[in-house]
Every structure is written in C-alpha cells, then in structure tokens.
Amino acid sequence: MDMNYHPLLKIHNTVAVLLFMAVTLPTCRADANDLHWSVDAETGRLAARRAEEKMEWRGETPAEIGYWDANSKPCSKAMTRTEGWKIERQSTERGCRLACRQEALGFSITLDFSAAGDVLTVGARASEMAESGAARLKSLRLLPLFGAASEGDEGHLVIAQQSGALCHFRDKKPGQHWVSVYQSSCQCPMPLFGVVRGNSAVAGIITSGQFDARVCVSTSWGPQKQYAIDPGFTLRSFRNEKRLPDDITVEYHFLPAAEANWLGMGKRYRQYNFTRRGIQPLRARAAATPALAYSAGALEVRIRLGVKPVPCEIKEQTPETEPPMRVFCDFARVRDILDEFHRQGVARTEFCLVGWNRGGHDGRYPQVFPVEPKLGGEEALRATIQHGQSLGYQMVAHDCYVDAYRISEDWNEEFLRKDQDGKPRKGGAWGGGQSYNVCLARAYELFAKRNLPRTRALGFQGLHYSDVLSIIGPFPCYDVHHPQTRQQDAEATVRILALAQKTFGGSQSEGSLDFTAPALDRLLYVDCDKWLPLMKRPYVDTCVPLYETVYHGVLLYSLSTETVNSQPGEASYLRTIEYGAAPLAYFYGHFVLDASKNWLGKRDYRYDDAAGLKQIVTGLRRVYDDVGRLKHLQMEFIEGHRQVADEVFETTYSNGQRVVVNYREQPYLLPSGGTVPACGWLLLEH
C-alpha cells in the first residue's frame, strides 16, 4: 500500500473536489461522530477518518476474490484494474456503490458503501453476484489490509479469539493467519475484530454472512511489513456447491479517542447486541425468571453418573455387543452428596446430572429414555430430584441433540447430517461407539420436541444443559431432503435452546459461540486451554477479557476446562475471579480410561466414602463462600480491566466496584492503602 495515497489528491480543481465530495461523502454535520470518507472512482480505494481526528484509515483495494478457473484450479485476484477488473462508482442516497466486473472470468460483484454517525457499512448483495463464464466464485475477502499498520507502529490488532487477544505491530514473522468465525469456541466465538492505531481505533462487526466468515490476521506482511485484520467469506466450500445465498455486510465502527481500545470495541459490540439483536441483560431476564435468578447466585456442580468405557473398542454397538456401563454414582449416592452439601451449609447450588439417560453419558443418543436402570431407574431419579429440591437445590439435566449412535432405538440415517458426498457426517467415538451428527433441524422436530417435555415431567427445573450446541459448528447439511446452510443450522440450534429455556426456565451449553446468545443463559467454557492455548498462536502477544466485556452481565460463564475444580489460591481459580467467571465443580469429570487424556481440570471429585465426600464439600464450601461474595457482580457489566502491577490485575464493574487479583506469592499493598492477599483477591468499593 502507498501510505501517502489519498484519493482527493488526484483532483486539483476546487470545483471538481466539491462535486466529488457531493457524490461520495455523507452530509457533514457538526456532530463529532461524523465520518469523512471517500471511495475513489477509478480504483475503489476507501479512505476514512473521524471528523475530529487527523489520522486517516486507508485501503488499497475494495476486495479480493478466490475462485476456481475453467479447469477447476484454485486462484485468487485482487479487485484492481491491473487484474482485469472494471470498476464503476455510482452515487446512492447515503453513500455510493461500486459495480465491479471481471469480463474475462465472467464475474460481476456489487459493493455498497454507506455511513451513519461513526459507522461505515460495506456490503455485497448475494443477488447481485453473477458468474457468466466457466469460472466459479469460491470466496470474497472484503477490504483486505484496510487500515494496515507497519512494523513498529503504536497500537495492535484486536482478535476475538476465545476470550480475546492482542497482536502488537512488532517482532512477528511474516504470515497471514486465517481464524474462523463460529466454527468452534477455539476460534472466534463473536463476529468482531478491530485495529487500534495510536489514539484511533476501528471495530469491525460482521452483521451478515458471519456463519461463513473468517478473519485474516496479517503480520509483518509484504515489503511494507504490514499488520492488519480483515474479514473473508466462504461463498462455496467446493466447486459444485450452490453459492452462499446470504448477503455479506460488515460495519466499521470508528471509535472516539476515549473508546479507542479493545474495551471500547467490546462495549460497542455489547450495545449492538442490545439494540440490534434483541439480547437482554441478565438482570432483566433474571427478574422475570426465578430459575435463572437462582442460578445466577448459585454454585454450579455437575455429577457424571455413569458411562460406557472410553475409548470404546466396539464402534458400532448393538444390544448384544454393547459394553456394560461403568456406574460412578447412582441416584442413591447422589442423595448422599446433596445431604453433605446441605449439612455443610452450601445452600444455593444448581446440580446438573450427567448420564441419567439410557446407556449413561453419550450412551444411546438421541434416545434418552428409559432412565438408566443400573442407576436406580425412573422412580429413584424422581425421588432424587424431589429430595434435592426439598433441600432448596435446583436440579437440572444433561442431554444431547448433536450426536446419534447406531445402538439407539431411534437410529435412522434419514435424520443424520450428510456431507457433500451424501454420506453421514461422523463425530467422535465415545461411550456409545462411533457418533454421527444429527441434522439439527431434524433434531429439533424429532427429538427436542419429544424429549424436553418428558424430561421436564421427571421434575427437573432450572438451566437445562444441551451438550456441545454452543461449542462447535454450525455445519451445513447436504441431505437432499433436509439441506441446511450454516446459518440455518445455527437457527435450528437456537430453536432447541429456546425450547429448553421455555420448558425448564433456562438453558446452558458447553461453549461461547455467540449466535446462541439469544437463547442461552449459561455456558461452561470460553477458553480452549487444552486444545488451542491462545498464547501459543504466532500472532498473539497478550490475552484480554474481550468476550467477557461483551457478555458479563448477560451470560453466566465458566472460564475453561483448566479452571474446573480449581481451589482458592490456585492460578486457574484466580483467573476465574479476574475474568468475572463462575466457578464450576465436577464429580467424575475424569471418565476417559487413559488418565492422561482427561481434560477437565487437574483434580477430580469422587465419592468413595463418607469421609472423602465430607472433605470434598469442605473444600467446595470455600468456593461457595466466594460465589456468595461476588454473586451480585454477575448482574453488572465489565467496564474496565487493567494490569496495575506485575502479576496484579484490576477488573472494574458497572456499579463502580473493582476486584483486584494478586497472583504473587506475597501480599500486594494498594496505593489506596488496602492489601490484596497473596494468591488472593480483594473487592473494592467505588
């Protein structure tokens, strides 16, 4: 990119300048939020800045396409005249549009630019993409390298991967790293990205096409060693696939200087969720939903009751070859656990029973009934639920709508998700053997509508847990009888979670993919520490609570698998406090036979005898006490986060309170005179 480029420099005549501005710039107002922006008529290059700022954000080209040529060879082209594109700019009511044609390939793409306040919207309409030749579009990268910085510049890229990450403009190897949006919680769980340059910042929000989007993180790229982050969209996954039917739209929010940081980006996206997606704060939802209000102030405890051996030797099980279930904790022993919690004054707890269904955890999905006889059967389960509720506890169930096993009485390949070759898509191999993905539109109609009311009739009430819905996907389905795009799969996911909310009083799932946020109340893991630690990525310098800034006060969340069963004083527990997360306890979390392959925390809770159970609950009482001290903050938003000293961090909430976390082995003396205990935390008032 020519960093000295400005499209207005091409026009020397004053009258011509005024005419150019009239057709390319929105009406200017005295409001400091207004943008000054232009799209060059010859090249399509974008330049923009806030009215009160000097720094201008520039792009070299409006887009880049990936495609298959007539011989099915993958290729790419920047949308420039030197690559054979003809670009025609047309004025519109709030901006302009570019009609872009590549006649040799037979491609035609229209890009729209418009502005309101400090937001510039750039989009490509699916209906106005055309392919008149033998070549086929594969992908569209929008505004590549827009606002790029150079090696050594002040600032950083903001990457919404897991909790969040920053990439400073220095000391990186040349590379372009693609990070998917929504394909798993280990990638980007939000369609958000951004750049901070000095006192200026731009936050990008993908508002349409996000289910087929990625972001490209460029580091020390090209002769100018540029750093940038920009979105790309998969129009087809393979040459003969129907092209993506969704429009592509990205909003670029040019933040004022006071908000020009990753926190400002998180707050801007939080507000977008409230005003544009209809998401309500936790406080408002809890006021209308007693089960959610209870959960928001409770300790979350999961108990895995039983599972067949994992790894499984028999992948395709039948009733004759099915291995016996390993019983960890039958319903009678669950009642012992409930009694011990009550005896020690752990009064407000939501217990989630995992593996109560036929065959135990991952035993025979999508079949869940009858209740597993080896655990005591339905009568004993009902008695256990009633006993817990009589002690004041909230009792909830775990189930799954993603996986199907051949041993299930419901087995039928008709409802399975199909790959492009028409074959069922496989998942992992678990207790029930080889799992196969269920098309979620079919799962909702066939199984969620059937199973959820019947599960509720057992007595369960609270935040019902549906496995993996919010941690992987969405995926397409190529079955000719029930085809689904990724967006349609996401919509089916939300329907399942919304039905659980309506049926039980709340819903929870495993991960942080935020297309589920309209129907989700609690999630287990934001970070993927065991699978893709952020600090091991070549483009990451610092981890930050970006996701938490968006969703604290909206969703209840645990931080990661590493923090499961962590105890006060441990670094993983302190991280939970620093990021405003909710502690999570798990009995029999380690269920894989090879102990080295278990991923849920460093310790596991097992009820071997009364003395051991008493010791476990005594330890959890300390965690419960911390939950009680901090539970009111679950209703607040995170408004600030900073490092105040080496290994000391402060998180500020919307009620003005601050939590200071000290990872040091020695107490930390605050400038105000307070003392944060060694490996501890302190709640401060205004």
Walk me through the structure.
This protein is α+β, with helices and mostly antiparallel strands and 686 residues long. The protein folds into three domains: 7-273, Beta-galactosidase, Chain A, domain 5 (Distorted Sandwich); 290-505, TIM Barrel (Alpha-Beta Barrel); 643-684, no CATH class. Strands 6, 7, 8, 9, 10, 13, 14, 16, 17, 20 and 32 form an eleven-stranded antiparallel β-sheet that branches. Strand 35 (638-645) and strand 36 form a beta hairpin. Helix 3 crosses helix 4, helix 5 (331-343) packs parallel to helix 6 and helix 7 (440-456) runs parallel beside helix 8 (486-504). It is globular and about 80 Å long. The model is unreliable at 1-32 (pLDDT under 50).
Give the topology, please:
Blueprint: H1 14-24, E1 35-39, E2 46-50, E3 57-58, E4 63-68, E5 74-78, E6 86-91, E7 95-102, E8 107-116, E9 119-124, E10 130-131, E11 136-142, E12 149-150, E13 155-159, E14 165-168, E15 175-180, E16 192-197, E17 200-208, E18 213-221, E19 226-234, E20 248-255, H2 262-276, H3 282-288, H4 290-296, E21 299-304, E22 306-307, E23 326-327, H5 331-343, E24 349-354, H6 377-390, E25 394-399, E26 403-405, E27 426-430, E28 433-437, H7 440-456, E29 464-466, H8 486-504, E30 507-509, E31 522-523, E32 542-543, H9 546-551, E33 556-557, H10 571-578, E34 584-587, H11 610-630, E35 638-645, E36 648-653, E37 658-662, E38 668-669, E39 675-676, E40 680-684
Parallel strand pairs: 21-24, 21-34, 24-25, 25-29, 29-30, 30-31, 31-33
Antiparallel strand pairs: 1-2, 2-3, 4-5, 4-11, 6-7, 7-8, 8-9, 8-10, 9-20, 11-19, 12-19, 13-14, 13-16, 14-32, 15-18, 16-17, 17-20, 18-19, 22-23, 26-28, 27-28, 35-36, 36-37, 37-40, 38-39
